[in-house]
Amino acid sequence: MSFSKSGEIAQQQFSWLENQYSYLMIHNVVIMPDHIHVLLEIDRTKAIGDCKIKSVSSLMGAYKTTSSKLIHLSGNLEFEWQRSFYDHIVRNQQSYENIYQYITDNPIKWRNNP
After folding, report:
1. Mean pLDDT of the chain, nearest integer
2. Are strands 24-31 and 36-42 parallel, antiparallel or unpaired?
3. If you placed Cys at 7, which of 3, 44, 74, 93 could pair as Cys (CB 3.0 to 4.6 Å)?
């Protein structure tokens, strides 16, 4: 799947997010034309100094805010994220593997059933 300029920004902002917060690890991410999937981990042991650990909601807020601003600056003034997001806590290795594979396979499934 090739990205539009907005898709490129959405992708790069996940790297920014991971670099911004030392305790955040992104295991898998896919940017789709009309949605995203991300598998992330918050590891408190990797926090540097006294930094306050942000919640998943705060991290997604930072992602949406920064990516929206950059997308708007690139000329796509109509772009907007949906107001909320859906999350799921990964409770075991099998769940992790299933979610990881679902994210990886999502572009193939979408291409076959747009």
Report:
1. 92
2. antiparallel
3. 3
Contact 17, 59 (CB under 8 A): yes
**Whole-number percent of the chain with pLDDT over 70:** 95
CATH topology of domain 5-112: Alpha-Beta Plaits (3.30.70)
Taking the C-alpha atoms of residue 107 and residue 81, their distance in angstroms, rounded to an integer, is 19
Q: What residue ranges do the domains of the chain occupy?
A: 5-112
The predicted model scores a pTM of 0.87
Position 68 confidence tier, pLDDT thresholds 50, 70, 90: very high
Q: Which segments within the chain are labelled E, that is strand?
A: 24-31, 36-42
